[in-house]
Amino acid sequence: MPATQHKPTRYPGELGLSAALARPVRRAYWKLRRGETTDRWVEVNRLGLRWRVDLSGYIGQQIVKWGIFEKTTTRLLCDLIEPGMHVLDVGANIGYYSALFARAVGPTGRVWAFEPVQQFRHSIRWHLDTNHLNERVSILDYGLSDTASTRDILLGDTSATFHAASSSESSPNTEAVDLKRLDDVCDDLGISRIDLIKTDIDGHE
User: Fold this and answer.
1) Do 81 and 183 meet the contact criterion of CB atoms below 8 Å apart?
2) What are phi and psi of 150, to 5 degrees?
3) Is the pLDDT of residue 97 over 90?
4) pLDDT tens digits, residue range 127-150?
């Protein structure tokens, strides 16, 4: 008998915008590209969840255009996570993975979203509240490192980094952020079990 072929999880709206939704979103995107508007934000239903995304950023563009961000990674992680799991989202950004993880772990699971940058924590909270997932996620206002410290992080509109800006770039905004050791966090919060860690911290892994 032939081997059973694994079929990845799919969610409503994964394969692109409906015709009714595509037209206004596409108009908004091209108005932004042509400089005819400064309104970068749109709300869309993708992957069975409601998203509020910035069309000037890569994550927002991918969610709007393709209905999914990092398709292979998203499918892999959503297939790995099971109800009741304890999951860490390190470098949560706008909460894309945090929201998907929260749905996957169900009411008996738990997600801890680490995001030291304030503007991104606002987006995480919006996505969790809007999709009624906030009770499954703890949003933590610090990052993880091998030592506890406070550092300045360079801020962009849709990303942040500890890498120094090149001399050709304009002087970026900065924000002082706290970093903690994972062992200390687990002790402080009483995290006794971790089933999966997703880490996306701009090359500082």
Assistant:
1) no
2) -125, 130
3) yes
4) 999 999 999 999 999 999 999 999
